[in-house]
Amino acid sequence: MPMEFLGRLPIPNLRVYVTISVVILSFSIYYATQIIKDPAWKTNHTHVDVGLHSGGDIDPTDPRSLGTHLKELLECMVMEPVCVWTLVNTGYCMLILLGKTIQKLVFGELRASENYHLKDKFWNFLFYKFIFVFGVLNVQYMDEIVLWCVWFLALGFLSLLSQLCKDRFEYLSFSPTTPGWSHARLLVLLTAILVLSSFMLLFCIAAAFFFISFNTFAFMAAECILLGVRTIHVMLRYLIHLYDTRGAGTSTQRSWDKRGPLTYYTDLISELIVLAVDFFHHVHMLLWSNIFLSMASLVICMQLRYLFYEIQRRITKHRNYLAVLNHMEQNYPMASQDELAENSDNCAICWEKMESARKLPCTHLFHNSCLQSWLEQDTSCPTCRLGLSMQANHRENTLEIPPEPQTPTRRNSNHFFLFLDASRYVSWLPSFSVEVSHNRLRGNISTFTHTNSQMDAMARQVQLLFPHYPRSIILEDLRMTRSVEWTIENILDGVLTIPHHLIEEPQEESVPQMETIVTNIMPNSSIQNSSDPRFDIPIADSGEEPSSLGGRFSKSSAERELILQRRKEHMRLTARRRYLEKHRKSEIDSTNSQITNTENIENTIS
Amino acid sequence: MAGSALRRLMAEYKQLTLNPPEGIIAGPINEENFFEWEALITGPEGTCFEGGVFPAKLIFPPDYPLSPPKMQFTCEMFHPNIYADGRVCISILHAPGDDPMGYESSAERWSPVQSVEKILLSVVSMLAEPNDESGANVDAAKMWRDDREEFEKIAQKLVRKTLGIPP
Ligand SMILES: [Zn+2]
Ligand SMILES: [Zn+2]
Questions:
Q1: DSSP letters spanning A197-223
Q2: Which is it for strands B33-42 and A365-366: parallel, antiparallel or unpaired?
Q3: CB of A137 within 8 A of CB of A220?
Q4: Within 10 Å of residue A245's Cβ, how many Cβ atoms?
Q5: Closest approach of B150 to chain A, Cα-based (Å)
Q6: What domains does chain A contain, in order, with CATH numbers?
């Protein structure tokens, strides 16, 4: 079976494969030279006979010119079935080497998913072409098979490259920091694929005039068109993406509103063309294949079914798109300039500024394209969850719908979303939700098993060390720190020396302030007297690091990564130090408590 | 779609860097792929997870603000709302369409108005107050209800583990 030559050799064991191919090739050349030497072979071939006669009656072993020798050799190899397959195999091997070079030049290391896709596509291609050649065309003659193999080698090679480009483009579009030249290389490769595929199409047309039937031409042309359209699709999406991300600094808003429909219709048209061409290609195959109930026609029927559903799905999706578009235009007017000026927030979906916007019945504003893509999958306002009836064509109807989604939220016992829901109605700005969560957590803390008697015991402990401090102040600090040692440290560090300042201020405001002070102090207060090696922790680079790191968003991605890494490290170290310190103190306290014989303090601390 | 998702993620990253909520750090693991983030979440104070720094991975879809990201803790976790493999089960991470538990109203689900910050803050409050109705981890939910002391012991062990302190 000829396919075994190609199929048995997977892509990864390249070195082994190349070696085997070279060995096979040299064997077949040796074989061919042996045959040429045999005078009986020449008599079978008129071509060579002519060559011999014109060369005169010289001794056959005489060394002739190298050119004619090679020509003879080649002719012999083409004639011999074994040698032909070695030649095809050599071509295949060289294509792989070429592909490998291109991969090294353009793609670098392939990612796991790209590798997987490539292999998948390779085997798929092999399977379908095998069915095509032997099931549909029912090729009988060796030379025909060879020609088809050469054709499919070229085609498969380009398709695989195009698939790889598509995968890589999708990956590159996930990153904001891809250097320009890697885009350029990919685009050059895509252009090359496009040019080659149009050459192949031209070749088909030329061949149709001379030596192939119309049917064969249609088969070949369909494949070229599929490859070409797929490549153009990737290129167009690529260009839109580049224009979108690169031009962002200068002309964001101008490109924004047109971008949505442009991308959409590019996708729609090229997908529909690919599906339609593929569909008719398969119908053609089905009609052409001589036996309708063969395995081949079964496979083709399955493929046809799949393509049909895909086309149907795409058209349904497009109908939905048009319906949403129509609905939006009829029901949600564009916001006026005054409304835009009044609403200073960005679009809540893409977080970008709104130069123009659509207004929902609940007065929330969104970009046209942002709202469009959201309404395609859900029919409620993203901000307030007001249900938007897609059937209603009059604005009055949509307004009459009560904002029912709000009520279940309030009813629901699923309470860990309450503060988020509350913040959702007011604003989606984070500063708000942070504060809410902060207060909430503090609420937790005060209810957390710290009964008055325990607090009193802790306060008494502190007062043993600092008798001149009024108990009320110590208690208040304890309520926030919830630990004896933190309060002691606050006193030592002078946070509690101005008691009137703390008392005068309303409690809500003093809490976040105090906590930030505490967190700022912690990194500085190094452990002086730890004897246990477990407690010897490196002090994070410096105490002021988080503030200097947190306040900056660098323009360079490398610096951003570095800062993030250091912030993470700092957080881990601080948490670790705080934890250890706390437990060390709680151990000390537990010994203290044995001496002073107060009630069970370490429970309240740890 | 990846272009607008990318810009939105960049804006969120910027905001989380300039204005970080307390006890939360989040950002792309590697800027070559902006759709995979790592977040560090400090266990809320006054709860059994207090003091721990829990790492989690966030994977964003290409149509990001339209679909929710997936979140998975990369450290060992024992919590009623976290699956054994670390996946987080809270309604804010569920797309409006799907309803695996069958009890959530759509108002609590994902919407493009939500953000990484809000997800992480609701995870913090989930750590503080488990919801034992959703049984992502049935054993943990049962222990949380019946044997709080044992639950706290396990949580403390996990906290020490995330801090790299031998038990
Ligand atoms: Zn928008
Ligand atoms: Zn609304």
A1: HHHHHHHHHHHHHHTS-HHHHHHHHHH
A2: unpaired
A3: no
A4: 20
A5: 15
A6: 80-107+114-320 (no CATH), 333-385 (3.30.40.10), 452-493 (1.10.8.10)
Q: Give catalytic status of residue B75 as yes or no.
A: no
Neighbouring residues of A149: CB distance < 8 A, sequence distance ≥ 6: A2, A6, A88
For chain B, the domain total comes to 1
Which of the residues in chain B have pLDDT under 70? Answer: 1, 97-107
The DSSP output letter for A404 is: T
Please name the residues between 137 and 166 in chain B that touch chain A, using a CB distance below 8 Å: 159-160, 163-166
Closest CA to A373 of A230, A259, A239: A259
B45 in reach of chain A (CB within 8 A): yes
Q: Is B3 an 8 Å CB contact of chain A?
A: yes
State the DSSP string of A462-480. HHHH-TTS-HHHHHHHHHH
- Range with the poorest average pLDDT among A201-205, A285-289, A301-305, A396-400: A396-400
Range of the domain at B129: 4-163
Q: Is B6 on the interface with A (CB under 8 A)?
A: yes
Q: Which ligand is nearest to the CA of A348?
A: 1
Optimal mutation site among A255, A437, A481, interface B, most CBs of chain B within 10 A: A437
Distance of CA A525 to the CA centre of its chain: 44
Which amino acid, A21?
Answer: S
Mean pLDDT value across residues A313-321 = 93
> Residue B16 — φ and ψ, nearest 5°?
-65, -25
Give the integer Cα–Cα distance in Å for B123 and B55. 12
Please pick, among B16, B56, B89, B120, the residue that the annotation labels catalytic: B89
pTM score, whole prediction: 0.68
Closest CA to B12 of B33, B29, B27: B27
Tokens of A542: 């410096």
Distance from CA of B111 to the nearest CA of A (A): 5
In angstroms, the CA A573 to CA A348 distance is 36
Sign of the Cα pseudo-torsion (A219, A224, A228, A234, in order): positive
Task: Please state whether beta strands A358-359 and B70-73 pair in parallel, antiparallel, or not at all (unpaired).
Answer: unpaired
Q: What is the pLDDT of residue A176?
A: 77
Chain B window 88-117: which residues touch A at a Cβ cutoff of 8 Å? 90-92, 96-97, 103-108, 111-113, 115, 117
Say if residue A592's pLDDT is above 60.
yes
> In degrees, to the nearest 5, what angle opens at C-alpha A479 toward C-alphas A478 and A481?
60
Q: Are residues B25 and A571 in contact, defined by beta-carbon separation less than 8 angstroms?
A: yes
Question: Is pLDDT larger for residue A38 or for residue A2?
Answer: A38
- Structure token pair of residue A487: 């309060």
A579: nearest CA in chain B? Answer: B51
Q: How far apart are the first and last CA of chain A?
A: 76
Query: How near does any CA of chain A get to the CA of B167, in Å?
Result: 11
What is the CATH classification number for the domain harbouring B130?
3.10.110.10
User: pLDDT (tens digit, 9 = 90+) per residue, A275-305?
Assistant: 999 999 999 888 877 666 677 788 888 899 9
- In chain A, how many H helices and how many E strands? 26, 2
C-alpha of A393 from chain center: 38
A271: Cβ–Cβ under 8 A, 6 or more apart, which residues? Answer: A233, A314
Per-residue model confidence (pLDDT) at position A413: 30
Contacts of B166 in chain A (CB under 8 A): 534
Between the CA of B150 and the centroid of ligand 1 the distance, in Å, is 48
The pLDDT assigned to A515 comes to: 39
3-class DSSP assignment, residue A601? helix
Cα distance between residue A385 and residue A142, in whole Å: 68
Rg of chain A taking only CA atoms, in angstroms: 38
A/B interface, count of CB pairs below 8 Å: 211
SS3 B167: coil
The pairing of beta strand B53-59 with beta strand B33-42: antiparallel
